[in-house]
Amino acid sequence: MRLSILTAAVAVAISSISFNAMAAPDQETAASARDSEIAELKAQLAALQAQVLALEERTDAQSGVNVDTAEALDKLANNSPKVETKGGIKLTSADGKFEAALGGRIHFDAYAFDRDIVDTTGTTEFRRARLALTGKAFGWEYKVEQDFAAGTNLDGLRDLYIARKALGGKVTIGHFKPYRSMDELTSANEITMMERSFSSATGLFSGRQFQQGIGYLRAGDNYTLGATVFNLRSPASPRNEGAGAAARFTYAPINNDNSTLHLGVSYSHENANKGSANIAASAPYAGRRGPSQTIATTTGASGDTVDSIGLELAGAFGPLFFQSEYAKANFERPIGGSQDVDTFYVMGSWMLNGGHKPYKPATGVFGAPKVAEKGLWELTARYDTIENKDVANLEATSTTLGLNYYLNPNLRFMFNYTRGDNDFSGDETGQYALRTQFIF
Description:
By secondary structure, the chain is α+β, with helices and mostly antiparallel strands. Helices cover 18% and strands 48% of the residues.
């Protein structure tokens, strides 16, 4: 910049001198005029040079400020925690070694009954009202989840564990679901019907949804292998010495973006011991808060066992989804011999305006469909039955038709009509149920 201004000034001076020399009528007058103009031009050049120097110093100073500011901003960004607000709230330390995320779910239900033999009461309730804190620290994952709809103390405790990658998989220690039953392991936010099937804790494993113990889960692109050792105590129940073990293996011979075929097998063993509560299978055949039928019971005081094996078949092909499980359990009893319980369900759904249920190979279950701006409509149906093979007519079935509307990834509305049938009592109660589900 400085050279350009000086070059222009010198050019102007030379042209002025040449012009004045040609125009002066007198040599002395011309010389005097020339000297005066040269002096004036020198003064102008000095002033211009001073301005150029001042501008250059200011530019250098500003560049230094910019560099310092950039370095300060970079340092601030690299040493400040990262905050994300998509869905829930997530905080990550600058070095990425610590995380904490807050989320939750609200399931608000309303239901009414077609009463038959059993007296029932229709009403509204919060089916689930949970807050969950998840994250990691020092290489360990953690989760703490409380369901306020089930109680504000230990009655409402759900997941409470720490976990760490090890031996090619993940080890979990604490309070969580044993690896058994596909429908049980599917999140309540993603189940197809409002309530789970009889092959889960809504039937065969009644009241034994979360257990305290240690588990190992290994998963690949199309398989999972999980095993759990646990006790039979819930957090709010008295201490006991009952213990159990469960294992589950799944394999998906077909698994791509649009098509999945799932196969699975699971085994569960529960051994009652000192202080154990009764181990029972109970079927709420007309929906939650409706009538229920006890199918089989192993008394905790007997010290007997309950063993079950389950088979799984499920798939998602474009908008079509189906899922089915068969489980057979043996309930030992101190008097009268053991009793065998069979349960089976088949469930399906159809996305009316596009959509596809994605497969989660890390856990071997299906998730919620990806929701577009126009929302998704899903027709659903399920037939579910459970039977005690050793007691005449001790069988309950339920047939459910439903409609789900996914307004966006966080909000879903569900409608179910369930027709129950209790062969033992002859009751045929029906239930109309509506759920507003919001997750964050």
